Structure formats: structure tokens, C-alpha cells
Amino acid sequence: MKLLVGLGNPGREYESTPHNVGFKVIDELAQRLGFSTAQTKFQSEFFRQGSGDDALMLMKPQTYMNRSGFAVSECLRFYKLNPEDVVVISDDLDLPPGRARTREGGGHGGHNGLRSIIEQLGTDAFRRVRIGIGRPAQKEQVTGYVLGNWTGEGAELGHKTVLRVADFLEKYAKNSRWSSTSLSVLPPKKKPRLPSPASEPEEAGTLPPS
User: Fold this and answer.
1) Active-site residue, selected from the candidate residues 19, 108, 111, 159
2) What is the pLDDT of residues 31-48, one digit of tens each?
């Protein structure tokens, strides 16, 4: 039994914000995997497919970001799930747009949604996928950035990364194979070409030896 949780904020005003990339991944997976319409359950939009140990559940907490842990913990108690059965998908300011990382366990890194989940579960032993959104130049711009409409190249890279993460989680849902890895939609950096060795040029105005 697996629970995939995408973090975000409810409401149309937040749909296109960097903070809601977790919701975007859940929407993509629900469409790909043929889930029916979401239920309102566990203070969330909740999807369930299969039964018993083969069940796959998708969740978009509707509690607002800083109370995400209440929705997740309620679901875990109801189904008697272990934290290790949970994957949480969130945005990450410290990764650039176009990159994502998967891992098992770890701290919240200042993310209020992850902080809430750790507090309510009493452990950080759940899997997570962090999707890069980049960080604004000034610290005081962070709130406006994560809750503002995402546009331009960053938004385009973010959308491609959502699809890449959905690829990874779709495979995980089908074969239960997890790996801590980096995911990227950015082209690899080209190594600078070093000049080929050559003889030193002769000084101007001199004649070669006779």
C-alpha cells in the first residue's frame, strides 16, 4: 500500500504558483493512471485505486501548506500505514528549475509543509521528491515568489520537471522500486574546450635563425 502526497495550497489563486508543483504532479499521475474523480477525505482531495496491500492512494491536502501534516497523519492512522509507505512531493527553493531530487528521510529544510508532516508523524522517515523552483535574489522576496504566478523560462522548466517526476513515480507505483537520485530536464553542461598544444609564435620583427 502506497500513499503519494503532493503539497500545495487550495484555491484558484494558487494554482499557477511555484509552491503548488506537488499538486501538479498528483494531477498528472491521476490522469495517467486512470483514477476516478477525487473524494473529499482526510481534509484532502483523495484518490484511491486497488485494494489491500496493492492499493495506491494519491493525496492533495486542502489544509493549506503549513498544516499539511494533519491530513497526512489522519490518513496514516486510518489505513495503519507506516511512514515508509509515504512519498511527499514538494517544491524546493535550493534547487534550480529543471531539477528534482528523490531521497529517503531527512529534515524539512525550512519547508513549512514538510515541517508540519514531520511534526504530526513524529518522524522524518518518509520518502520525498523535491522539485526545484529556484530562489529569488533577496530573502524578503521569497514569500511573494513562491505564492506568485510562475511565468517565463522557470515555469516552463518547472512543467517539464513535473512530467519527469511523474515518470519516476509512475514506475515506482508499478514496481515499488525506489532510488535516491537526481532528476533533470536540463541539458548536461558542456565541458570547456581546451586549446590544443601549439608551438609558441615567433616574436614580431625577428627573423628565423639561418
Assistant:
1) 19
2) 999 998 889 999 999 999
Q: What share of the chain is helix, strand, coil (3-state, %, to 5)?
A: 40, 20, 40
Strand ranges for 93-177 from DSSP E: 99-104, 127-132
3-state secondary structure 4-73: EEECCCCCHHHCCCHHHHHHHHHHHHHHHCCCCCCEEECCEEEEEECCHHHCEEEEEECCCHHHHHHHHH
What does the alpha-carbon distance between residue 184 and residue 99 come to, in Å, rounded to a whole number?
Answer: 4
Phi and psi at residue 100, to the nearest 5°: -145, 160
Closest residue by Cα to residue 156 from 38, 36, 18, 7: 18
Q: What is the pLDDT of residue 192?
A: 58
Backbone angles phi, psi at 142, to 5 degrees: -60, -50
Q: How far apart are CA 153 and CA 182, in angstroms?
A: 20
Q: Which of 75, 104, 112 is nearest to 87 (CA)?
A: 104
**DSSP character for 93?**
T
The greatest distance separating any two alpha carbons of the chain, rounded to the nearest whole angstrom, comes to 95
The whole-angstrom separation of Cα 178 and Cα 188 is: 24
The Cα–Cα gap between 45 and 57 comes to 11
Kindly state the average pLDDT of the residues 69-73. Answer: 97
Does residue 108 carry a catalytic annotation? no
Residue 96: predicted pLDDT: 94
